[in-house]
Design a protein that fits this description.
Layout (H helix, E strand, L loop, with lengths): L3 E3 L2 E3 L3 E5 L5 E8 L3 E7 L2 E7 L7 E7 L3 E2 L3 H8 L11 E13 L2 E10 L2 E16 L5 E12 L18 E17 L3
Antiparallel strand pairs: 1-2, 3-6, 3-13, 4-5, 4-13, 5-8, 6-7, 7-9, 9-10, 10-11, 11-12, 12-13
């Protein structure tokens, strides 16, 4: 396993890394009634991280099954799958494709990209931390990372809401996306 470094960050060896769904969590947090955080996740997704020979030319491509949303409430999940929110019948996937990577210090990177929800594509930046690169007991190489961003769901046409008598709304416009990931090296870079 050979690695490159940028500042104090030890980067993975160049190649294609498949995101390991059994060791990755794609989650979100939104406010409910303006006071409580509601957390959820997507159970089904796949994607790759391609580490380029020049690390800042690396890329990410992830597809998420919209119907796999799980907020620990069957009624809420049904509503989130409906046309009021994700409209999974018409738009079955969400997708993130990176457009650039910037080193921001130590083990931290900014991953710029295009997030598509309901066929609306907007630019977002993931704040990413490279948590480590290790050899696994099966002879493979794994990289671990954490990433997050905050979006305004209305930018993707997710505008359903209910005004509260006390002021404010039932569901926050701001949604925090949090990813804890692990990816396994598949092939060397070409």
């Amino acid at each position: 396993m050979s690695a490159t470094t940028i500042d104090t960050a030890t980067l993975p060896e160049a190649g294609t890394y498949a995101i390991d769904p059994s060791h990755t969590d794609v989650a979100f947090v939104a406010k409910h009634l303006m006071v409580t955080k509601v957390r959820g996740r997507f159970a089904d997704f796949d994607g790759t991280v391609t580490i380029a020979p020049e690390p800042l030319d690396s890329s990410v491509d992830v597809t998420i099954d919209a119907a796999s949303i799980d907020s620990r409430s069957a009624d809420r999940d049904g509503h989130l799958r409906s046309a009021d929110f994700l409209d999974v019948e018409q738009f079955p996937t969400l997708r993130f494709v990176s457009t650039g990577v910037r080193h921001v210090g130590d083990d931290r990177f900014a991953v710029d990209g295009a997030l598509t929800i309901k066929d609306v594509t907007r630019s977002v930046t993931l704040d990413m931390e490279l948590d480590g690169v290790v050899g696994d007991p099966w002879g493979g190489t794994r990289m671990a990372f954490s990433a997050s961003t905050e979006i305004d769901r209305e930018d993707w046409g997710l505008t359903w809401n209910v005004a509260l008598d006390s002021g404010g709304v039932l569901v926050s416009k701001k949604v925090r996306i949090e990813i804890e990931g692990q990816a396994v090296r598949q092939t060397p870079a070409s």
